[in-house]
Amino acid sequence: MHRTAPRLARLLACAAVPVMLVATGCSDDDGGSKKKASSSPSQSAGAPSASPSVKAAAFAKLPPEVCKTVGEKTIDSLVPKAKKKEGEALPTSDANDSASCFWNGLNDEDVKDLQFRSLTVSFKRLASDPTLGSGEKRAEKFAEQQVTKATTADGAKDAKTDKAEGIGDGANLVATDTKKDDDDYRNATVVARTGNVVVTVKYSGAGFQGAKNPAADDIAKGAQDAAKEAVAAVAAANK
To answer: Going edge to edge, which strands form the sheet with 170-180?
Structure first.
């Protein structure tokens, strides 16, 4: 067990964690030139059109406490003996547009079955913009980018991507295997869109010092369970 502590310290230190234009109008402030302006074909043809409008985004804000978007019971189940059960909020430039929380821990109750788990829950809110499009459309594009990113993260190979049913307005599950410090990790990433918010959940597990790795199905289920709670937290924050 004394060999495990420094190794875990290295793992935690190296752990990878998953980060407006305004249209203006013109007015005629010269009341005496209306007749002249209306008689000029060239000016009429070149007059600015009305500012384009886009559908208002469904959600105006993210959950105020990102580390509480997944319940304590779920954390106990997915990350037994978490280093910080309350989670660690990751730095962000604007908590109303993006937010992430991270948990990890080593279950060492059985010295012959050392099990490491980590969980990252991230949110990205995209506002509607006359130039860039509606928040929902922007979120759809961002979600696609997140799925592509998950297929190669941490040097993953042979990624498998499937639909994840019953999560938000649409979700994908990306399953991968990676290797760090001679240990094999099983990973599942769920990318879900709810309105104009994209929720990305990454759940990873590994058996240390010869212990058996977690089943891929268990890791996939854990990621989906956490994603469902995170998606529900977005709706609750905007009531």
So the answer is: 88-89, 98-107, 114-125, 197-208, 183-194, 170-180, 157-163
